[in-house]
Design brief:
The protein has 273 residues and is an alpha+beta fold. Helices cover 26% and strands 30% of the residues. Strand 5 and strand 6 form a beta hairpin. Helix 3 packs antiparallel against helix 5. It starts with 13 loop residues before the first helix and ends in a 5-residue tail after the last strand. Bound molecules: biotin. Biotin binds next to helix 2, strand 3, strand 6 and strand 7.
Length: 273
């Protein structure tokens, strides 16, 4: 396999990306920065200033990239894809995690087309290749009354970077380059993800959820496995059965009772994810 020293990371070209997106919702308000604290944080600030639905924040580097449950997200400058989408969907707050799943599916399709890698979803928000994490989605939202005011979907996708093999995080993380030895055009990948997501997002807004619901169940790697879910209210042990229409995980616990889990950290027995 080639080493990462064999090429230099090329910068993203905003104008090229916008041209490729054409009349897409996501082409109209795209912000591309060399360095930000976190694309989610900037997207949230823009949302507060009234930025429209479809605003995209892309960065070459994050100084304080964030993951779920207070974790960080590490990515060397220009190596990977780091972006956030600002949406103002006509959905109920309970439906917000459908958008996480749909972005994960758009990522799966784009990665498959660009690099022939077939990923799975590790509920609730990760893309995995076999036993290693390739990408994560951070979903943050604000609610007004009974409606969603805005949703920020942040995606971090390891394209070229992967930590030194055999050390620390490298046991759990991978990248497209680490798997294929090939360089990927990050701008092209971003365009593919945004185009795929735009189509699905349109369907979700029209209430056409079923095909996506089926697909995220098909692609979910925890289903049919014994899992432990750690949440703020303790641990649940059981068999992961399915993901419901709102993106919650249904687990059959040790007492034979179905539990509906809306968030938490899942570990699969005999699988270190
Ligand atoms: C996770 O694995 O818990 C989710 C990771 C999400 C990381 C992305 S990178 C772009 C966006 N900005 C952030 O600060 N986080 C998300």
């Amino acid at each position: 396999m080639k080493s990462q020293g064999d090429f230099i990371y090329e910068p993203l070209r905003l104008e090229r990306i916008k041209n490729a997106l054409g009349r897409s919702l996501f082409a109209a308000n795209m912000v591309c920065r060399d360095s930000v604290d976190s694309t989610n944080t900037l997207a949230k600030a823009l949302a507060g200033q009234g930025a429209p639905e479809g605003t995209v924040v892309v960065a070459e580097e994050q100084r304080a990239g964030r993951g779920r449950l207070g974790r960080g997200w590490v990515s060397p400058p220009r190596a990977n894809l780091l972006f956030s989408l600002l949406l103002r969907p006509p959905l109920e707050p309970d439906d917000v995690f459908v958008l996480t799943m749909v972005l994960a599916l758009a990522g799966i399709d784009a990665i498959e087309t660009a690099s022939h890698l077939s990923c799975s979803i590790k509920w609730p928000n990760d893309l995995y290749l076999k036993r290693k994490k390739l990408a994560g989605v951070l979903t943050e939202f604000s609610v007004r009354g009974k409606s969603l005011e805005h949703v920020i979907l942040g995606l971090g996708l390891n394209v070229h970077w992967h930590p030194e093999p055999g050390k620390g995080i490298a046991r759990q993380a991978t990248s497209i380059f680490a798997e294929t030895g090939l360089k990927t055009d990050r701008g092209d990948l971003l365009v593919r993800i945004l185009k795929a997501f735009e189509v699905s997002y349109g369907h979700i807004k029209e209430g056409k959820r079923e095909p996506y619901h089926r697909r995220w169940n098909d692609r979910c790697l925890v289903l049919g496995k014994q899992v432990v879910i750690a949440s703020s209210s303790g641990e649940i042990h059981g068999l992961a059965k399915k993901i419901d229409r709102q993106g919650a995980l249904i687990v059959l616990d040790r007492n034979g009772t179905e539990q509906r889990i809306v968030s938490g950290d899942v570990s699969v027995q005999n699988f270190h994810g």
